[in-house]
Amino acid sequence: MNTICALCGTPLTPTDMLIEKNKLADGGYLCTGCFTKAISINRDLINTLDQFYFAEITGMFLKNKIDASQNPGGIQSSNGNTYEYDAPTRLDAIKDQIVALNARLSVFANEEVNELDRVLDQDENLLAIAECIYLQNNREGIVFATPRRVVFIDKKILGGIVRNEFPLREIISIEHIENLLYSVLKVNIKGISAEFKLHNKNDGRAFCTIVNRNIQEPQQYQKRSTEQLHAFQPNISGLVKENAFAAGKESSEAIFEQLEKLGRLKDNGILTEDEFAEQKKKLLDKL
Length: 287
What we know:
This is Short C-terminal domain-containing protein. This protein has three domains: about 1-90, no CATH class; about 100-220, PH-domain like (Roll); about 220-285, no CATH class.
C-alpha cells in the first residue's frame, strides 16, 4: 500500500485511511487535506474519486489555480463556498506540461516530479517524460527530454536526487525496443548507450520521435552549411586570383575589393573565422 499522499507527498496517517473514498484509479491515495480540497472543487468526487487518475486530479487542481489567479476573490465551488488559492508556481506549470503531454506516470513517480522545478531551468520546458528503471544502476525514477538534454532522476530516500544527464548535442540517436509488457529506451552517445526500461511500453515511441527530431534538425542545418561551403569553394579560391595586374601584381583597390567579398562570405556563414583569416592573410601579403 502507498504510504504517501499522491498529490502533496505527505505521509498518510491511519485517519487518512479511514476515509475509504480517497483512492485514485491508478492506486494512489489522497490525504484528508487534499481529499477535502478535491471535493471542494468537484463535489461529485466524494463518491467517484476512484474513477479518476492522478493526472486528471492534478489537472483539476491546476485549472482552479489558474482560474483563481485571474480572480483574486477566489473560486466559488458548487456548494456556494469561496476558496482562496495561491497563484500557480513553477512546479504547477511543470505539472501542467506533464498533463498536456498525456504522460502516464504512477503515484510512485510523484517524488521525482516534485523535484523538477529544481532540475529544470526557468525557461526549459518538457518535451517527453516517462517512468522507468535506469538499467545501468537499476534505480527507479523518471526520464525526461527537453530541447537541451535528456535527464534521468531518482529521489533518494534520505533526501537529494540521483541525476544522470545527457546533453542533446552529444546524443547520436534514440531508439526503443518493444517487448510484451514494456519497452527499452536506448540513448546512443558516441559508442556507448544508456538504457531505460519503461514501465509503459507505449511511451518509448513518442519519446524517440520527439527527441530524434530535435537531434536531426541541427545536423541537417550543419549539413546544408557544409554543402554551401563546398559549392562556394571554387569562388573562394578564385577571389585571390582574379583582377590581377597584367604585370602579375594586384592593385590595392582590387585587393580591398576582394577583402570586402570575403567579409560578406564570412557574415553569411559561408566562411568560418579560420578560413576567413587564411584568405585575408593571402590577400594582404600581396599589398
